[in-house]
Amino acid sequence: MGSLNQEHYGQGDNVARDKNLFIENYNTFINLTVPEDLREPVKEILSDISNRKIVDAKKKIDLIASIKNQTKEVNDLFLLLRIKADLVEDANSHSEFSILNEIVLSSNNEMIKDLSLSLLLRLEFNKFGKDRMMDRYNATDVKGPFSRALLLELTLSEEVLQERASTGKHGLTEEELIGLISGLFRVKNFETALDVAIFLVDYFPSYNSRVIHLFARGMLLNQDIVGDDYWLLSQKEKDRITSLIEETLKLYTESEGNDFRLFNVIVPCYLFTKESDERLRDICKKNIESVDKIDHEFANDFRILHLNDQEQESHPVNIIKKCQHDNAYKDSVIKGVLSNDLISLSDFILVRGLIEDTSLIDWIDKGGLLQTDTAKLSELFSKLKLYLYVEQNDVSRRNSKIVDDIIEEIVNYDSNDFKSINSTFIFNISEDLRVVERNNHLCEIMGKYFDNKHSYWCSPIVYQYLIGLFETGLYQAFSSLYDIVDNTDKPILIHTMALSIYYSHNEMEKALSLIEEHNANQDLDFIRLKLHVFEKSGDFSAIEKVVNNIDYKNFNEPTNSLLRLSDKIISLGYTSFGHDLAIKFFLDSPEKNYMFVSHICLRIMMSNRSNHEFIPSDDVEGVVCGVSYNDNGKELTKIIVAGSSINSNYFMSSDSPVAKVLLNSKLDEVNKVGMKRLILKERMPPYVAVLRLAHEIRNESNDGTDLFQSISLPSDPEEMINVIKDFLPKKEPKQDLNINENIPVNFRLDLIAKNEQVKASLISLTDKNIKIKDFEAGGDDIEGDISTDIFTICYICINSFVNFFIEKDIKFLLIEEDAKAIKLWLEAIEEDEYKTIGLNENGNININTSESIKTYHGEFIKNLHDIQKIIRIHYPKIGNIPNELNILRKFVGDDYLKNIYTSITNKTPYFTADLMANIYFRKVLNMKVIDFHKYINEAVKYTPYRERERGVLLHSAGMYPYPLSIGDFYNLAYSKNDETGYFLGELIKLYSGRFNDNINLYALMSQLFFRYLQKTYMNNQIFNGEIKKTDFSFINPYGAKIDRIFYICCEAIMKMKNDLTCEQNLARFLVFLLCQFTSNTKFLNLIFWLASNFISGHFLSMDKLNECLEELMVIEE
Length: 1117
Fold this sequence. Notes:
Layout: H1 27-33, H2 39-50, H3 54-65, H4 72-89, H5 97-106, H6 110-128, H7 130-139, H8 145-154, H9 158-168, H10 174-186, H11 190-203, H12 207-224, H13 235-254, H14 263-272, H15 278-286, H16 288-294, H17 296-306, H18 316-323, H19 327-338, E1 342-343, H20 345-354, H21 359-365, E2 369-370, H22 376-393, H23 401-411, H24 423-435, H25 439-449, H26 460-472, H27 475-484, H28 492-504, H29 508-517, H30 524-537, H31 540-548, H32 560-571, H33 575-588, H34 590-606, E3 623-631, E4 634-641, E5 651-653, H35 657-663, E6 670-673, E7 676-684, H36 686-701, H37 717-727, H38 736-739, H39 745-752, H40 757-766, E8 786-787, H41 790-798, H42 802-807, E9 812-814, H43 816-830, E10 835-839, E11 845-849, H44 850-866, E12 871-873, H45 883-886, H46 894-906, H47 915-923, H48 932-942, H49 945-956, H50 966-974, H51 982-991, H52 1001-1016, H53 1019-1023, H54 1026-1030, H55 1042-1054, H56 1062-1077, H57 1081-1097, H58 1102-1116
Parallel strand pairs: 1-2, 4-5, 8-9, 9-12
Antiparallel strand pairs: 3-4, 3-7, 6-7, 10-11
Helix pairs in contact: 2-3, 2-4, 3-4, 4-6, 5-6, 6-7, 6-8, 8-10, 10-11, 11-12, 12-13, 14-15, 16-17, 18-19, 18-20, 19-20, 22-23, 22-24, 24-25, 24-26, 25-26, 26-27, 28-29, 28-30, 29-30, 30-31, 30-32, 32-33, 32-34, 33-34, 33-36, 34-36, 39-40, 40-41, 41-44, 43-44, 49-51, 50-52, 51-55, 52-55, ...
């Protein structure tokens, strides 16, 4: 490709050319005029002339003309044939008018006279024009079919020709009909020309008539698709081209390749169809000289590309070939091209294939450009081509702003401007964009290039666009294009994508209709999606029918598609399919297929759904059984294969001596075979042996990239624990993502626990290392059902706010996957199937089971059950995922992405406890979001403290944000669930320095401290000073932490933001505490004793404190 603009070789015709077609028919003339013995030679001469084999034709003419004693008519005939050959060779040939005129005047044969007149008239027309030709025509008495045909071909107006075609064609001879068709070609009335050509074939059937009909079809098709690109045609237009090619190939075969006229269709069709038809390519290879006569430039390129022509040394293909063997020449070529600031696209493609270093990138960075026409759009595309090359070859420069800016400028152009760009160039640009993972930009550019026709055939560029739309999540655009792309050439992959969209968007009628339309297709991914659709629609008989029609024996090699299909079939309970498939592929090649087999076996082991109990079969074709035995002290497992001579690390023949002994041996019985001492340990079904051997190979082959690993545990419990600890992955230190509260917590859930959203949400809510941004007011009111996420559901449940939302009859909308995830988590807990094992931060083994989860999160589990009453499933409507959401694909789980997409397409407001996600949705995605801060505060007011205390405790420990009230401080100070005051202290510390300015902190801290005292001690104990004697933390570490709480209150006072000193603030706190409650001397001494300890520990001045106290006490008095 030498240019990015639309380009054609030669004259620019799409599928046919009417230059020098020579479609005259001389059969009647030959039969009536030529002696029988000369008819075949004359036909050969005329064929040579038609096929532009002028030299051959003239040689034959001269040979026959040299024969003596021919009649005058015959001599005149061959003289006319020579003149005909001259005219074909050169339309402006200056043949002697006198010769033709003499024949016209002297010949007694009217046919010869008429033929010579037609040639004379054609010469006159070519040399002097229409008027001089008509003068001769009108002055001549004898006007036969040839001369009348010439009149139709060269002179008559479109109106006259149209009239003759509609009302007068029945009165015309074959020659005149051909002339009429040629005339209609001349005035470009191709539709009428085709009608006449059909009439010609019907009434004068012959090979020549069919050729004329072919050209009439081709010329009309040319007219209909003028300016169109082959890849952007409708299926109907494409089928017309296909039909034209098929007819051309038939005629080519019939003529044994000797009809040169057909190359007027073959070459244009080959070029217009992007040189994709191999049959036309083969014809061009065999007839390159004929191709050359049609299109010399194309023929030269074709010789190099397909015929290994070495003569054109400057052609890029030959340059590349020479560079492969001559490094010095290669360096000189590269240097020569890059010495220019402006190079052609073909030169860029040339050096791109030769360069192995960064020199081309350096050239681009220095301002190198591609040659284009003067249009700005072409210039932008050339820049895009260059900078995509940079991104392809330098990963660090991916997603560059310069490419973003170029594409933004490109897509701002009108769609009509794109018509000048070569579709092959657009296709190649799209390939470049896919490589650098810019599918969204691929779709933007493709969208501008497509001209919104009512239909397309599934060409390579349409196929590319459809894939780009699907992978980018532009499902609405995909569906719209899918509906107008004809199914004839549409690959099953595109139908599979459509089925995937219908399934994920719950468009079950469309999905079932598509399945019915392509039910016989055996594509594995399509079959897998069929099973998903039938499962969702509850049609289990259809599932069974599909599974029963799949014969595992038909699969010859493991593929990802087969693996996904087998996973689905096994998950539906058809474990026998996996059983048979695993055995088959292991028998085929253990070393090649062990990973595939191991995966299937694990899937069967983990499947909790089966149509019947899974029992490995003993009856397997070609296999006797599996055995585990001791061979001279070495433990081995092998599969005994019936009647096979194979013996390896995994198989042994049933005819082998060892196999015969083992098959007849009892367990643990010692047998001797030659030098071998054999003890049979276990006889097992073939599947069990396959499972063990596949896992064994997988273990031994694991280079560290495979997460799978099996271990052997010792019987000693302590050693067993140490082995497990060594095996378990160490807990990683805090990740930046986890401690960064500005990153939405929902974006981090997949990193915390991939594909386990409930578990990840619980961890994020109960791990103080995971920071979550505090709530802020902002958003809309709830007016109907609201979309939400698993994290928010878990937040509501862990804080026991469920009843508030039930009372308000607020319905939470979840996608099917999230609702199912919650249900499966609850089922696993209730059925005691939940178990995880890992290492904590201290390196100790931490095991979580259903029982431990129930114990620690019993209230959460109950709330999670209760909230099911107000959860509804909603599905996305077919829409387009915004690019701003698409960029999150690398960071968030697919389900979360679908959740947001569902909210967007249904236009439902979003409700989330994730403040940063809320802000992102509102500002970036322009989504309607609910004011979570408002409603969660209402939930706090509605819910009694005793029900939501767990949330307050977790919040105080720094776990997550909480809409705390002053009352919660007081309630916690009194709470029996915080005897030591740990949570109260942590809660005060959490808010120290950031309490609301409207709060009287002196009063609050004094009240909290005193209420904490009252929770643990009687008033007489407090005021009689007994506390100091018996129960301080340094005396009883498990008792009340009175000093600790006092010190925390003091620290909160010191962090107050006012103009007072620390001593002044502390004095106010102490005075408020003493004056508010009592003037008891013993209590006063207790407080001063605590204050004295605090002051000395914080290097404050006791004298200043006393001064402040005296001033305040005077004021108080």
